[in-house]
Each structure stands twice: as C-alpha cells, then as structure tokens.
Automatic annotation (TrEMBL):
Xref: InterPro entries: ArAE_1
Topological category with respect to the lipid bilayer: Multi-pass membrane protein
Protein name: Uncharacterized protein
Keywords: Cell membrane, Membrane, Transmembrane, Transmembrane helix
GO cellular component: plasma membrane
Compartment(s) of residence: Cell membrane
Broad class of the protein's primary localization: membrane
Amino acid sequence: MQFGKFRVGLRTLKTGLAVMIIITAFYFLKRPPFVAALASVFALRESWDKTLSFAKIRLISNTVGGLLALLYFLVHVHAHNAAWVSILLLPLLVIIAIVFLDGFNFNSGVIGALAALLMISLNIPAGATVLYVIDRIVDTFIGVLVAISVNRFASPDQKK
C-alpha cells in the first residue's frame, strides 16, 4: 500500500502482527510483553531465509546478554544492591559481551546482546528473584520464535 511517499509493506505488516501476537499472548499469561515484543522486532527480517539466519545470531546474542544479566543480578543481590555494581560491573559486562561475540565472529549480534543485557539488568524491579531474570531471557526467545513463525507463515510462497 502506498500513501503518497509513505509505503506500508509486507515486512511492516508482519512486524505489527508479531507484536500483536506477543501482546495478546502475554496479556493472557499476565506477563510484561516488552522484552519479547522488542526481540521480535529485532529478529523479523524481509524474508524467511534472512529471518532464520538472523534469528540464529539473535538467539546466540540473547543467550550471551541474558547470561551476563543473570551474572549481574546475582552479584547485585549479593552486594545488597550496591550502586557500585551498576556503575562498575555493568559497563564491564558490556565490554565482555562485545569482546566475546567479536571473538566468535558474531559481530552482528553485539547490539542484540547488549540490548538484552541492558534491558534485563536495568529493569529488574526491587525484590525480584532469579526467576525474573530467567523469565526475561525466555521472553527474548519467545519474541524471536514468534518472528520466525510470522515470517514463515505470512510470507509469499517463493520466499519460503
């Protein structure tokens, strides 16, 4: 669809559909949809093949970012929520994520890993448990899987 110089393409519609599916599912699951919705937006690409390829990178980067967020959470709790953990450890974990992913030639996953690390780490509510962090890691996987599914089943046949 074209509205003057503005175009609504298939990728735009698929992205909206993926976000709608996540918001609806998470509403019924009584879970916050933010992390999953954002992960689906990051993962959804213009074709099935590109989404699948990028999803692999996204899942690896989410795992790295999520595990580092879990490490951050454990240290933060152990240090009785001391400010120094956020000020010193979180930037160090950012550096570790970049170096690790670069070392394995997953440079295209750096932004996703840092997004997962920072979204999870900087949004941990007071009194949260390890389960909260694990839930957010799972949410990133759900978002990527929804993006893969939407792109698989809402794409023209020649792209499958």
